[in-house]
Amino acid sequence: MRDYGKVHTSFWISDDMRRVSDDARLLALYLLTGQHTNMIGCFRLPDGYVSEDLGWGFERVSKGFDELCANGFIARDSDAKWVLIRNFMVWNSIDNPNQGISALRLFTQVPDKSCVKPVLARVIASALTHIEASKLKGCERVLKPFLNQEQEQEQEQEQEDPSAPTGGKPEKKPKAQKYSDEFEAVWAEYPKRAGGADKAGAFKSWNARLQEGFTVEEIREGVLRYAKYVSASGKAGTEFVKQAKTFFGPSRHFNEEWIAHPAKPVQELGGVSKPDKAIPGGFVG
């Protein structure tokens, strides 16, 4: 059990927190600072614990969780009662290999069948980018089976997107897809990735979010934040860049803060610095 929890000062003025109710805001603060939270921001939290600690009824607890899930602040396995604070490891970064190994050990305690585990795998992988794999003693291998599952889950969610066409007959695909000028402008700013890019799928997710009430500017600002994050973390042009259709999808990743931390050099324990072989001026023969 930890003695205290850290809350970033931007918590109170962030758009995510301004859009939610007072109950959801208090629940978010409880998740960040409560006794159940650990260093990876993923832990099992039955509704009864929250009800007891906050003095809330179960219906009130359930509504608070639902609101934070819809807002993208958390991912939650409502069956197994596991909660993941999506940006927790952005706000509480891993500083050294020992912390990284501890985080990976906590990762193995999350049930493999929990829907939050693939999301957590991506979060931890991003948090460890500044640490050499050799320093983690092979512990990072536990992430690999789960890194591709998150995208598959979100693609399944997109198939259930309420904006998708319904009816008995399959929809006929147009010969040439036409995209809005606003989408084309944001698409040009989206970070490039290795592999394919489903532009039509991205446009479908884009339109679905606009129908939900998000503005073009809100989505574009999210893309710009993500582009800076990808560049700073050294992931540009790799398969670790999210598909745009996933970024614009039901999980609303464009709402996340995407704060990039510069790579932190890891100093070898007991290492000896190399001597400076440069010859000072005035000593050259």
Descriptive overview:
It is a single chain. With 285 residues, the chain is mainly α. It folds into two domains: 135 residues, no CATH class; 81 residues, no CATH class. Helices cover 44% and strands 4% of the residues. It is built from 13 helices and three strands, in the order H-H-E-H-H-E-E-H-H-H-H-H-H-H-H-H. Strands 1-3-2 form a three-stranded antiparallel beta sheet. A hairpin with a 4-residue loop joins strand 2 and strand 3. The longest helix is centred in the C-terminal third of the chain and has 17 residues. The N and C termini lie far apart (66 Å).
How many domains make up the coordinates?
2
Residue share in β-strands: under 5%
Q: Share of helix among residues?
A: 40-55%
* Mean pLDDT reading: 83
Strand order, biggest sheet?
1-3-2
Low-confidence stretches: none
Number of helices, counting only DSSP H or I runs of 4 residues or more: 13
| Overall outline | globular
N- and C-termini, Cα separation: 66 Å
Radius of gyration: 22 Å
SSE ordering: HHEHHEEHHHHHHHHH
Largest sheet: 3 strands, antiparallel
The total beta strand count reads: 3
Structure classification: mainly alpha
